[in-house]
């Protein structure tokens, strides 16, 4: 029987989904953004921690400016100068990226989520978290509900579903994404990243896309040489796969999701850390102004998208 354990640690509600037979497990901090803080999966007969929390020695999770495993919602990445217009009205968001003068990553990454539902059986355990936003955030007066569902099965598949519902009486601008950092071994020199891209966006001085250039990553890019910090446009299909490979370990970490729902993708290696952020997003940076991937949610309408993560020997996933 799969297990779900819930405990209070230093005032935070920590949820652990466990496979007792294989010892695989996922840990979620419900109190701080419903954040995935650990994911241990088996490969070659040993457990590998694949989630990284960069700069955790410097910052508490609730204050970490690198947003590890953060929910990006109701906008993704940046809104230039924190300013946008929607349906003929101008809005000003608080500037929380002071060095570049932008509003960054929405405002949901540190909200306290509550447990809505949990299920477990012989083959899978799942838990759903929720948060209700009342429209009181400066510059975003559109109420909504957010839902996060985490599940782990006995085959080592970890699934994350993120969803939002417009609970207001008018349409709302909306984008959603996820900001996890992954590690596979302890040296970026050993890692290759493969994904079905079309273009890479080059950014201006505010880290807002300025132009796009053709970029094909199907055959892999070496992280040590590329040192990515870009948004990429993916080939849109019902199911795409992003694969992080470590040939020294003969291990491959896979993210599978719909690039029809998440057509934009960020890869980012933080300075001095042996990890990489892999970020599926519904919209491009500054989509509140450029409308690239912007979703308009009508009243009582929802968006939902899922991401499956697995770890295997190279060639077996």
The appropriate CATH architecture is Distorted Sandwich
Which regions contain 5 or more consecutive residues with pLDDT less than 50? none
CATH topology: Beta-galactosidase, Chain A, domain 5
The whole-number mean of residue pLDDT values reads: 96
CATH level 1 class label: Mainly Beta
The end-to-end distance, rounded to whole angstroms, is: 25 Å
- 3D shape: globular
How many beta-strand segments? 29
Q: Helical residue percent?
A: under 10%
CA-atom Rg in angstroms = 19 Å
Task: Indicate how many domains the architecture comprises.
Answer: 1
Derived structural class: mainly beta
Strand order of the largest sheet: 12-13-14-15-29-25-24-19-22
Please outline the major beta sheet: 9 strands, antiparallel
**Binned strand content:** over 45%
Number of discrete helical segments: 2
Structure description:
The chain has 317 residues and is an all-beta fold. It has one domain: Beta-galactosidase, Chain A, domain 5. 3% of the residues lie in helices and 50% in strands. The mean pLDDT is 96.
Sum up the structure in keywords.
317 residues; mainly beta; Beta-galactosidase, Chain A, domain 5; 9-stranded antiparallel β-sheet; 7-stranded antiparallel β-sheet; 2 helices; 3% helix; globular
């Amino acid at each position: 029987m799969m297990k779900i354990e819930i405990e209070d640690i230093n005032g935070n509600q920590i949820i652990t989904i466990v496979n007792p037979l294989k010892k695989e497990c996922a840990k979620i901090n419900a109190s701080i953004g419903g954040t995935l803080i650990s994911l241990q999966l088996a490969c070659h007969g040993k457990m590998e921690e694949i989630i990284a929390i960069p700069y955790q020695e410097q910052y508490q999770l609730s204050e970490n400016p690198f947003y590890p495993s953060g929910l990006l919602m109701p906008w993704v990445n940046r809104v230039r100068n924190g300013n946008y217009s929607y349906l003929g009205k101008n809005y000003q968001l608080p500037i929380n990226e002071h060095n570049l003068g932008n509003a960054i990553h929405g405002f949901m990454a540190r909200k306290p989520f509550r447990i809505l539902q949990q299920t477990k059986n012989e083959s899978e355990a799942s838990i759903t978290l929720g948060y209700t936003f009342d429209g009181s955030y400066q510059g975003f007066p559109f109420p909504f509900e957010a839902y996060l569902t985490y599940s782990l099965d006995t085959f080592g598949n970890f699934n994350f579903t993120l969803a939002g519902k417009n609970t207001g009486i008018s349409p709302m601008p909306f984008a959603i994404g996820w900001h996890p950092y992954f590690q596979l071994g302890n040296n970026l020199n050993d890692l290759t990243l493969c994904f079905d891209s079309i273009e890479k966006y080059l950014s201006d001085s505010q880290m807002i896309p300025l132009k796009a250039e053709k970029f094909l990553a199907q055959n892999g890019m070496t992280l040590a040489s590329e040192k990515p910090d870009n948004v990429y446009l993916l080939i849109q299909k019902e199911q795409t796969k992003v694969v992080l490979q470590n040939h020294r370990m003969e291990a491959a970490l896979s993210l599978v999701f719909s690039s029809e729902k998440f057509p934009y993708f960020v890869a980012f290696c933080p300075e001095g850390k042996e990890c990489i952020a892999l970020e599926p997003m519904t919209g491009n940076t500054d989509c509140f102004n450029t409308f690239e991937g912007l979703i308009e949610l009508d009243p009582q309408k929802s968006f939902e998208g899922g991401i499956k993560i697995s770890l295997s020997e190279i060639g077996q996933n």
